[in-house]
Amino acid sequence: MTARPERRPPPKITATYIENAALHYLERFSSSKANLRRVLMRKVSRSLAHHGGEPADAALIVDAAIARLAGLGYLDDDAYAETKARSLHRRGGSLRTIRATLSAKGVEAETTQAALETLAEASPDPDRTAAIALARRRRLGPFRPAEKRADNRVKDLAALGRAGFGWAVCRAVIDAADIEALTDHEGDSVP
Predict the structure, then answer these.
(1) 91: closest CA among 176, 191, 185, 178?
(2) Does 110 share its domain with 132?
(3) In which domain, by residue range, is 30 found?
(4) Are residues 118 and 130 in the same domain?
(5) Long-range contacts of 43-50 (CB under 8 A, 24+ apart)
(6) pTM over 0.85
(7) How many domains does the chain have?
(8) What is the pLDDT of residues 100-156, one digit of tens each?
């Protein structure tokens, strides 16, 4: 049995290190300011536990880096919220789920509401459109083979309910006669 190699100690916190770490993170993921701050503060915590130092001083460095990146246009909570909301909606996320996800990422309530209103402008009933997308992706209701629909109705309703959709939306999607019946509702199309 081979011994595990020792982990390298975390680097000391400097303005350059924090900014480089933030840029590296933003190269791979889009993020809100609050989420990036959480990521960077985890790095700070590991470094301070090993090297020592003042958390308040490190927090000032993190805040300065975030302000600089926001000023350069790398961080924009409004654009992040709209992009994340559209992405989750296309995958079948309910408005409730989208709101919770954005909140967990540190997006402010007003910014989240603006992103959800943008979704509402694009579709007359965004929850119904998302429920159809989720049903299609997971092969629920009318997207299931006809001989298995009745046996799985309750299970399909529960799946949509757990995804954050209201009872009326769940029933409308799962109990639709067929896929074409889903498209007859106020111009919605099957995604």
Answers:
(1) 191
(2) no
(3) 15-71
(4) no
(5) 43/10, 43/13, 43/18, 44/13, 44/18, 46/10, 47/10, 47/11, 47/12, 47/13, 48/13, 50/9, 50/10
(6) no
(7) 3
(8) 999 999 999 999 999 999 999 988 899 999 999 999 999 999 999 989 999 999 999
